[in-house]
Each structure stands twice: as C-alpha cells, then as structure tokens.
Amino acid sequence: MKTRWEIVLLPSFLLVGLLIVASQYVFLKGSFFKDLGLGRINDTATFVNYIRFFTDSFYLNTLWITVKTSALAALFTLILGFPVAYLIARMRSKWAMILLASIVVATFVTIVIKVFGLIIIFSADGLINQALMGLNIIDRPYTIIGNQTGVVVGLMHFTLGFGVLLLYSVIQTIPRSFEDAAQIHGASRWRMHLRVLLPLSLPGVTVGALMMFNMCMGAFTSAALLGGGRVFTLPVLIQRTVMMEIKYSMAGTLAAVLLITVLLINLLSIYLIHRLKSARLVIA
Amino acid sequence: METKPTNKVQLGQTSSSITRIAARRRSGPPPRRGYPWGKLGHYIYCSLSYIFLLSPMVVVIGASFHGGEYYTAIKFPPDDPSFQWYTKIPTAQFEALALSFGLAALAALGACIIGIPAALGIVRGVLPGRSVISSIFRAPLQIPAIVTGIAFLQLYYLFGDATGLYFQGTFLGLYIGHLFVATPFVIGTVTAILQRFDTRLEEAAFSLGANRWSTFWRVTLPVIKPGVYAGGLYSFMVSFGDVPISIFLTSPGFVTYPVELFYGMENDFDPSILASASLVIFFCLLVLLGMQKLVGLDTLLRSGSR
Question: Which of A5, B81, B253, B284 is the most buried (most CB within 10 A)?
C-alpha cells in the first residue's frame, strides 16, 4: 500500500520544470543583448533594449494600451458573463444544459473564426452598418477594425466563454439555500446580491477576472486581426518584431516586460484580496 | 450575517408568537430567485450576452452558403444559397486541418500521460511546499501565450546552434510547445477529482489481492475518468485553436489550421475559408455531443472547476 506518490510525480515535474526554466531563461537572457540586424546579436550584455523601451513613448504607449484593453475586456466579460453564469447555475430545467453547451461550443471554436465573423458583421455593408445607416443614426459605415474598441470586442470574444464557465463553477459552489435564507429574512433582491452573493463569490470572481486578464494580455490573434496594423498591443508588437524586423533581442525585451507586468498585476491583486479578507469585507 | 429576526424569536417569546410569525411567513410571498431586474429583465440581458457571444459563428456559417462570385463572396445573410465554397476548399486547408487534429489529439494524450501522475503526486505525495509545486505546474497558464511562443522559438534556435538539431518548423517542436500549455488543464481537472477520492476503494482492492498496476487501471483510473476526459478535452481544444504559439513554431508549407486561417485573413482572402471554418464549428459541436454522451456535460464542467 505504500506507494511513494512523490516519486510518481517526479518525471512530470522535471519535464515541466525543465521546459519552463529553459524557455524562460533563453529569452530573458537574450533580451540583454543588442540586435545587430538580420537576427544577429551582439555578445556583450547591456540594458540598451530596456532603456529604449522605457524611454520610447511608442513602446510605453503600447504597454498602456495592452493593459487598458485587457482590463476593459476582463471587466466587460464579467459584466456580460456573470448574469449568464448565474442564470445557468440557478436553472433547474433542461434548458440549462443547452445554454451551457452553447457556451462550451463558443469557448472551443478557435478565436480566428470568431474574429472572422466579427469582421463580417461590422463590414461596411454588414448587418450593423446597414441597420444603423438605414435608420439614419450614422451616415458613414462604422468599423471596429483598426481601433481600440475593436480590440476590446475581440478580446471579449476570446474570454467570454471561459469566463462564463468559470463563474458558473464559482456560483455553483454557493448553496441556493443561502439566497433563500436572505430573502426569507426580508432582504430585497439587490440586497441579497450585495450582502450574500457578492461577498461569497468575490474570491472566485477575482481569480476568474485575473485569469481573463492574463489571457487578454497574452492574446495575439484578436488584437492582431482587429487592430488592423493600427492598434498595437504588446503581443502584436512582439510578433512583428520577430517576423518582420527579425530583432530577437528586442522581442525578448518586450516579452520580458509583458511577463513581468502580468506577474506584478497578479501579485498586486492577490495582495489586495488578502487585505480585503483581513478587513472582513469578504467572507470565506 | 443578519441575526436579528432569529434572536427575537429565540429569546423568551411565547410559543403563540412563534406560530404567529411562522403563519405570517408562510402566507407571505415565497422566496424569489435573485434576479435584481426581475425575471424578464434578466432573460433579456442574458439573451443579449448570448447574441454577442454566438453571432460571429452564426454569421460565418450563414455566409458560407452564399452563392455569389468570388469578389462579392462574403455576404450575410447569404443570397442564392449554394454549397459552392464547400466544394472549393483547397487541399492546403485540409492538410492544415489534419495537422491540427493530429497535433491536438497527441497533445491531449501527452498531457494525460504527464498530467495524471503529476496530479496523483500533488494530491497524495508527501511534498514539502505542495502549493509551490502545484503553482509551478500551473505556471504555463500564467505565462502569456505569445511569450511562450517566442520563448520556445528562441530555445529551439539555441538548441539547434548547440547540437545541430533544429526543432522550429518540425512536428516535434510544435508538439512540445502545445504540450507545455495543454498539460496544466489535465493536472487541474484530475487534481480536483482526486481531492474527493475515497482512498478506501484502493485499500479494498489491495486487500483483495490486486497489485499496484491493476489497482490503478481498475479502480483509480475509472474514478478519475471524468477529470481525465474533461482535462483531455480542454487541452485538445486549446491546442486545436492555438495561434500565438503555433505562429512562431510553424513554417511555410507546414501550418496548423488556425494559423493558415490567420494568414488567409491577413493576406489573400479566399471565401472557401468560410466553408472550412463552418466545418470546424460543426466538428466542435460534434465533439461536444460525443462528450455529453460519454461522461455528461455537467460532470465534465464540475471536474473542471478549481
């Protein structure tokens, strides 16, 4: 009966650990060297790429746009997703399964196809523009390609399915009887939401929101296709720096900044959640 | 927690007042579901979310049946419905689909082979710093996907310069990258199931004379099966739809389907990708229905929750 489970774990741990350390080490180290063009790299370590990043307003602006669009997308995903997750989690009929299944399908279909659909919907002679122009609300086709709104919408399509599934599993862990109890004791529906459901779901919701934010920060496809070469987020810029400018070191620097920003924002949020918990604003 | 109403009842009140309160409660309105804007408002709100979420896919499928000429080929709602684009899907797209499918299936398999022992170790092992180890296993999900892509590309360059074996643009190179992001999903779902696992089942198998392997195959694996299916499905789909990693690790003539589609949309746009994209949507639907038959959607999602 004495199976040494920690030995069972070892091969997997070594493999995953090796891949993490090797891959992260290589590009982080590379980010400290200067590009000589055509993929060649100088062999003395400097901070020149980092200095360039933090002194060039273009790069700083890119970082700001990345964080802003990701945060907005995560926020709007919560706003759109939470009521849906709540509806499915509290539904008793067979419809719940169908509603859930369509969310899962939407999650699984690759984002490229969804962005494709978005482009068709918002094209100059697409449904939305025809309707809006037919009603004389706008006199010129509105496009989401090449502006930040488009990028946020694209990112939301990337995260919304995942988000609803995550929130669904969070809400499911909160017994329905808590809500009934609050209402029997005379809480209004809003009050029940604010005083019972929100505090109980907040830890899960925060983790979910962070996960969506992380996904958006690394999201390349929707930002590249809907940014249309005019809106640059860090992932898009990283791909361009590698594929078009062939500057591996600068790309490594951009990737390092992206990685560290994500880590810092995550740590900060976790810290804030702990503070909230100790201030007893959050139960559980 | 609001305890005032119960206190009032508990502290020295006569039984008649209790029955009076109870009667008032019973005659009062039954607890409503907690929809702040009322049921109708909530349904309308959720319908809008669903329209937002599903419309791109509906539009792609709809537009794929458009029967127009090449340059007016994208139109929704479609005129003159036909299957013309379905017959014009170039072989390159089918090759890309086959590559993506094979890659995703193998990534899911590999993720199970790495992930199941890891989950067993995390839950049952005597580990110093268990939370650190499990967060290392989950780290590939925290690393932005684009960073993973460029990191593996540079790792392969360095490895190639050192050994002469270049992995970029090869199946193995692509596979390692996909495996890296697929594994945490299996670990997550299997860990969730193992935490509720009754180890007495295994003890019973042992005491009845089963050895370790047959205990694993005939007791442990069947119990954790929903978690394995759920994790395998997630990792399959993540690999099947990935662009940011694949775009660095593929090469011309050797591309996965999402990357082919990505380049198709950036450069030479061919309406037949509407048709193949619709096929992929139907395929995802089929996979889901299969999973529903196999383990049930509810079990699938419940084991996916952390």
Answer: B284
Sign for the CA dihedral angle at B8, B9, B12, B15 comes to positive
Q: Which of A41, A116, A172 to mutate to test the interface with B (most CBs of B within 10 A)?
A: A116
> What tokens does B254 get?
């050797």
pTM metric for this prediction: 0.84
- Expressed as residue numbers, the domain containing B236 is 91-304
Please give, one letter per residue, the 3-state secondary structure of B23-70: HHHHHCCCCCCCCCCHHHHHHHHHHHHHHHHHHHHHHHHHHCCCCCCC
In a domain, B18, yes or no: no
Distance from CA of B115 to the nearest CA of A (A): 7
Question: What CATH number does domain A57-278 carry, 3.30.365.10, 1.10.3720.10, 2.102.10.10, 3.50.50.60?
Answer: 1.10.3720.10
Q: Is the Cβ pair A218, B117 closer than 8 Å?
A: no
Q: Are residues B197 and B277 both part of a single domain? A: yes
Tens-level pLDDT at each residue, chain A (284 residues): 566 777 888 888 899 999 999 888 888 888 888 777 666 667 777 888 888 888 889 999 999 999 999 999 999 999 999 999 988 888 877 888 888 888 988 888 999 999 988 888 888 777 788 788 888 777 777 777 888 889 999 999 999 998 998 888 888 888 888 888 887 887 777 777 777 788 888 878 888 888 899 889 988 998 998 888 888 999 999 998 888 888 888 888 999 999 999 999 988 888 887 777 776 555 44
> How does pLDDT run across A65-106, given as a tens digit for each residue?
999 999 999 999 999 999 999 888 888 778 888 888 889 888
CA dihedral (A234, A236, A239, A243) in degrees, to 10, reads -130
Same domain, B104 and B249: yes
Contact status, residue B235 vs residue B110, Cβ threshold 8 Å: no
Are A226 and A151 in contact, with CB atoms under 8 Å apart?
yes
- Name the closest residue on chain B to residue A171, using Cα atoms: B305
Same domain for B215 and B248, yes or no, is yes
| CATH number of the CATH domain containing B233 | 1.10.3720.10
Q: How far is A169 from chain B (nearest CA, A)?
A: 6
* Predicted ipTM of the assembly: 0.86
Tell me whether residues A106 and B53 touch, CB distance under 8 A: yes
Neighbours of B197 (CB within 10 A): 18
What span, in angstroms and rounded, lies between the C-alpha atoms of B14 and B17?
Answer: 6
